[in-house]
Amino acid sequence: MYLRRASQQPVDWYPWGDAAFQRARELDRPLLIDVGAVWCAWCDLMDRHGYTQPEVAAYINANFVAVKVDYDAQEKLSARLQRAQAWMNLPGGLPLTMFVTPTGRLYYGGAYFPEHASGDKPAFRDALREAERLYRESRAQIEREAFDLELGKEE
């Protein structure tokens, strides 16, 4: 259901899997991974002010390979991604928003990113720009130090 709803968004979503990581390697782009659920009010809000907005979707499509994960349909994968986010001391919860290299290294992320900056939470558009900047400017450091999602492990 969560993935079906995403099919109406202007973001070019991939399902979790080798094809998404292969595409990211081909394009030399990081992956934006969104883990959410149909029952999650914050996921719905982030969809409405982020993923359904044409200019946000255009930026994502031009700079990332976007991956949508249904929390309920892929419980083991969702739990593993949440543990990785916690290990990196990044905000967790749903939606889980992760930025990952094509080699599977988690380097930036959070949970819900608001439409406009609020307190210590950057606006979603600013988070997208920061993730893209880090990938371009700090790739060697990210590959050395970021959390390895161990992609070969069972989901």
- How are strands sequenced across the largest beta sheet? 1-3-2-4-5-6
Give the SSE order as H and E letters.
HEHEHHEHEEHHE
Rg: 14 Å
What is the rounded distance between the termini? 20 Å
Structural class: alpha/beta
Coarse shape? globular
Count up the helices.
Answer: 7
Largest sheet: 6 strands, mixed
The helix content is: 40-55%
Strand composition percent: 15-25%
Query: Which spans have pLDDT < 50 for at least 5 consecutive residues?
Result: none
Number of strands: 6
**Rounded mean pLDDT score:** 90
Task: Please give a handful of descriptors for the protein shown.
single chain; about 160 residues; six-stranded mixed beta sheet
Helix and strand arrangement:
Layout: H1 2-6, E1 13-15, H2 18-27, E2 31-36, H3 41-51, H4 54-63, E3 65-70, H5 75-87, E4 96-100, E5 105-110, H6 124-137, H7 139-145, E6 147-148
Parallel strand pairs: 1-3, 2-3
Antiparallel strand pairs: 2-4, 4-5, 5-6
Write up this protein.
This protein is α/β, with parallel strands linked by helices. The chain has 7 helices and 6 strands, in the order αβαβααβαββααβ. It has a 6-stranded mixed sheet with strand order 1-3-2-4-5-6, with helices on both faces.
Summarize the structure.
This protein has 7 helices and 6 strands; from the N terminus they run H-E-H-E-H-H-E-H-E-E-H-H-E. It has 155 residues and is α/β, with parallel strands linked by helices.
